[in-house]
Specification:
This protein has 495 residues and is mainly β. The chain has four helices and 34 strands. The chain folds into three domains: 91 residues, Immunoglobulins (Immunoglobulin-like, Sandwich); 92 residues, Sandwich (Immunoglobulin-like), CATH 2.60.40; 254 residues, no CATH class.
Length: 495
């Protein structure tokens, strides 16, 4: 009996002894040998190598790291464990930041054990301010200018913003008028808008990185004195290419065959409509839908007279060549060549037709003070597109669905009084949906608008602007023999 008891006791001792072979880790049983630990700290990373003392078996270890005390919102990083040694590398940390961390040990229990808190600070990143240069100011007009800039070096940290700032006093900063144009290194351009006429401005390029903001050399320039619109032009400036502005005529171009007289519509929303069906050399009335290049000057096309209605597009080649644009050669194919409204114009031929590239820039690429380039509208019962000048202010008149090709004409109902009292005096240009002419038939009146550009597209077609209730298509190609609207412009003096 005693022998059996001894055996049972021995077995119990063996079983219970094996159950307590691996002690639970705690501050007394599990020791990180800090004196043997090597921690290497960089700007965005840290590595650990060391040893620990523990009589049990470690299934895995990891580091719990965070910027909040008590490790709220922390992340866990696995460690490599071999015997009683461990190692780990953590990357993606922020420079110059204090991090809390603790060792976490998985020894097979449901809840891993976590050590006391430790801490380290990542190294400060050695970065400099970006190197930025104010290169040149060009395209200065009454109310705008173009500033060319360059970021040559990011200083060791990504350039998150670059631009230019300007003011009427020296040493402008981003707290003054400024405009950002992208990020990173390289050349860039900033269009300075909303400038006052006849004023001295100071401008500097700037660039930002994590270190801060740096500025380029200061340049100064003088805007042109305030310009009085020439006879027949609306008092609004429109940029049609970088640093290049124009005035628009006060209305669509018209022609009176019997009187051999060119003119502009008396109101911007006026168009001649059904009168175009009477197009002929002896028609004693106004027409305003013209075949391409019908300026009245014999520039080489078969059909060059404003009353031409021939349906063969081959007869409307500018200068007799299918590839020429209206403004090529002598310029006589452009309707503006023959429009003279004041003394001296005969020699300078100041009026002209916009090119396709200029129409496109006007609608889609132009920078304006208000951010508004165009809206669709109904002015005094006439559908069309309203173009707003570079310096348009939203305080002048509230407009809806800005810069939206697909907006409807009913987006903006504008009375005659509102148009003539507020919008037109502040430079607004209205292009009425004056329809088109096919041979002797006027079509789409009040529904669609077609406006010629000076740019040839193919053998029988030229580029133009087309709009209706659903879209605005800048660059559509149209048959040269069709009759479409013409809106002339005059270039603004530059320096």
């Amino acid at each position: 009996m005693r022998f059996k008891l001894l055996i049972i006791c021995a077995l119990c001792a063996l079983v219970f002894g094996s159950c307590h072979k691996d002690p639970k880790p705690n501050e007394e049983t599990f020791k990180i040998l800090k004196e043997k630990e090597k921690i290497t700290i960089g700007t965005d990373r840290v590595s650990f190598k060391g040893e620990f003392a523990y009589s049990g078996i470690v299934d895995s270890m990891w580091l719990r790291v965070g910027v909040e005390e008590h490790l709220y919102g922390s992340e866990d990083y696995p460690m490599s464990v071999m015997g009683k040694t461990y190692s780990a590398e953590i990357i993606g940390l922020q420079p110059g930041t204090f991090y809390y961390y603790a060792y976490v040990v998985d020894y097979g229990a449901q809840t891993p054990w976590q050590s006391e808190l430790y801490g380290f600070t990542t190294a400060e990143e050695e970065i400099n301010l970006p190197t930025v240069t104010t290169v040149e100011v060009t395209g200065v007009t009454v109310s705008m200018a173009s500033c060319l800039c360059n970021v040559a070096d990011d200083g060791g940290s990504e350039v998150t913003e670059r631009g230019a700032c300007w003011d009427t006093h020296p040493n402008p900063s981003i707290s003054n008028s400024s405009f950002a144009n992208g990020n990173g290194c390289g050349n860039y351009e900033v269009i300075l808008t909303g400038l006052e006429p006849g004023t001295t401005y100071y401008v500097r390029a700037y660039a930002k990185n994590r270190k801060g903001v740096n500025y380029g050399e200061e340049l100064s320039f003088n805007t042109l004195d305030e310009l009085i619109p020439p006879l027949g032009a609306i008092n609004g400036l429109f940029t049609v290419a970088e640093g290049h502005q124009v005035w628009f005529s006060v209305g669509n171009l018209r022609y009176h065959a019997v009187n051999h007289e060119w003119g502009f519509a008396e109101e911007q929303y006026q168009y001649d409509g059904e009168s175009n069906a009477n197009i002929a050399e002896d028609y004693a009335g106004w027409i305003d839908l013209f075949g391409w290049g019908t300026s009245g000057f014999d520039h080489g096309a078969v059909c060059y007279q404003p009353w031409s209605s021939d349906s063969d597009s081959d007869n409307y080649f500018a200068y007799g060549n299918q590839e020429y644009n209206l403004n090529d050669q002598s310029g006589q194919a452009d309707w503006g060549y023959g429009v003279f409204l004041e003394e001296g114009d005969v020699l300078t031929h100041p009026w002209r037709t916009l090119t396709y590239e200029e129409w496109h820039y006007l609608f889609h690429d132009r920078n304006t003070v208000s951010g508004i380039r165009f809206v669709k509208a109904n002015v005094e019962g006439v559908n069309g597109v309203l173009l707003l000048p570079d310096d348009w202010s939203t305080s002048v008149y509230s407009l809806n669905n800005i810069n939206q090709d697909g907006a409807s004409f009913t987006s903006n109902f504008i009375t005659r009084n509102a148009f003539t009292s507020y919008i037109e005096p502040n430079g607004g240009v209205f292009l009425p949906a004056a329809g088109k002419r096919s041979g002797m038939e006027a079509e789409g009146l009040g529904v669609c608008g077609y406006y010629w550009s000076a740019t040839a597209a193919s053998v029988k077609r030229s580029l133009s602007v087309m709009f209706d209730a659903d879209l605005i298509d800048v660059g559509t190609t149209l048959n040269r023999s069709k009759g479409y609207s013409v809106r002339l412009v005059r270039d603004v003096e530059q320096r």
